[in-house]
Specification:
Length: 414
């Protein structure tokens, strides 16, 4: 079934799902039926076909030979990781637990890489034993990995995560440039290469990750160009083995908030073509990009049910059975400076045209538990299904599920 385009007054349109009657639908299955299947609300649902379409769209835009990795922390649901393992060229994990999920999905350990500024000695040992790639974020991590390799009689796969000297403007979260907890400062990398090579080991690759949630194609293209310049310069310093790939990060954003527009993928692809060629010609390496949010955010929804409608001093509050404890990001408390609304609507009243300014709040005893602040929505009644779109990434696992001790929601891959 072809997806329908759902338009919003202020948010970028959604075209990941279908509509059946007045209901949002996942491959023909209406939302109310999904709510019954899940055992009730609230729940998260992720659309397989939407994920497939997104990966296809991205592959079509990227130059040939660029490898695509999925960053598991965006959504580590095992069934979804399994699916993305089959659609991508590798997985990036940020903990030993994520590593186990990635390996369970059947991915070749050489195509799994492990980033994170605080890898414990135990986690490093697990990674070396598994044969995955360690993206080293410090000299200390390198020494721990080398020692683990000696103990286990296994050659560790060592890559270096570089904290580049450049900084990217317009990223939701900056993770490179200036003093950072992430990666090894650009100026210290040659020294670390020498140190590792003195142990008789080579560097398998370089990793640069300069930020996240960027919607500016030109800014991303510029960061990629600078990353390639730097990666090639560092690769030229390797003596023992030539590095096998250059991971230039990701950072592709999705339009969450009023006024945000979809990223211009065509533009990014055009700018990447000469870079991929250069890296191939000068160092015989593939370029790797790693994306989390961009692959899954728009394929997921969070759904909760209206418990009550109440009025306070002229303002309409719609109280629902889910909120901040399941979806911190939509409440505006996950890295946002100024709270803005995610795209929200009533998933069982899509065709209706009446509108009323309403505020959707969750069941927690805190004013932070807000899913939509004074939004124009179809007038809600108890039993209606409130849908928060663009919820496939940094949803459940980025939320304080223990706060107030309500039950956790079900997650479904549909
Ligand atoms: C979080 C993270 C990602 C994924 O970022 P998205 O914005 O979800 O694409 C990729 N790589 C590293 C190293 C990360 O820490």
């Amino acid at each position: 079934m072809a997806p329908s385009r759902i338009e919003f007054a202020q948010h970028a349109p959604i075209d990941a799902f279908g509509v059946v009657g007045n209901e949002l639908a996942f491959d023909g299955v209406p939302l109310s039926r999904l709510a019954t299947r899940s055992g009730g609300t609230p729940f998260y649902a992720y659309s397989r076909s939407a994920i497939r379409r997104r990966v296809a769209e991205l592959r079509a835009a990227l130059p040939r030979g660029v490898l695509l990795h999925y960053a598991v922390k965006a959504n580590p649901m095992p069934a979804l990781v399994q699916m993305l393992a089959s659609l991508t060229d590798g997985l990036d994990v940020a903990s030993a637990a994520e590593m186990l999920v990635a390996l369970d999905a059947g991915v070749d350990p050489e195509s799994v890489s492990f980033a994170g500024p605080g890898k414990g000695a135990g986690e490093i040992e697990q990674a070396v034993a598994a044969g995955i790639v360690l993206n080293l974020e410090s000299e200390a991590q390198a020494l721990t990995a080398i020692a683990a390799g000696r103990r286990l009689g296994v050659a560790p796969r060592l890559a270096i995560r570089v904290n580049p000297a450049f900084e990217l403007k317009g990223s939701g979260m900056r993770m490179g440039g200036g003093p950072k907890a992430f990666g090894v400062d650009e100026v210290r990398v040659p020294g670390l290469i020498r140190r590792i090579e003195a142990e008789g080991m080579g560097i398998v690759g370089f990793h640069l990750f300069w930020g996240s949630q960027n919607l500016d194609a030109l800014a991303i293209a510029e960061a990629q160009r600078l990353s390639v310049d730097l990666g090639l310069a560092l690769a030229a310093r390797c003596r023992v083995d030539a590095p096998r790939w250059l991971n230039i990060g990701g950072g592709f954003g999705v339009p969450y908030f009023p006024g945000d527009r979809h990223l211009d993928l065509g533009r990014i692809g055009e700018a990447m073509a000469p870079l991929a060629q250069r890296v191939r010609a000068e160092a015989d390496m593939p370029l790797v990009i790693e994306l989390g949010r961009f692959l899954v955010a728009e394929a997921g929804v969070y759904v909760c049910r209206v418990l009550e409608r109440k009025e306070s001093l002229g303002q309409i509050f719609v109280v629902v059975d889910g909120g901040l404890h399941h979806h911190l990001a939509a409440s505006g408390n996950f890295g946002q400076v100024i709270r803005k609304n995610y795209p929200v609507l009533l998933g069982n009243r899509i065709g209706e045209s009446a509108r009323q300014v309403q505020t959707v709040v969750g069941p927690l005893c805190t004013p932070l538990d807000l899913l939509a602040d004074r939004m124009e929505l179809v007038p809600a009644q108890p039993g209606d299904l409130v849908v928060v779109f663009r919820s496939g990434a940094y949803g459940l696992t980025a939320s304080p599920t223990r706060f107030l001790s309500h039950p956790a929601p079900v997650e479904m891959l549909v």
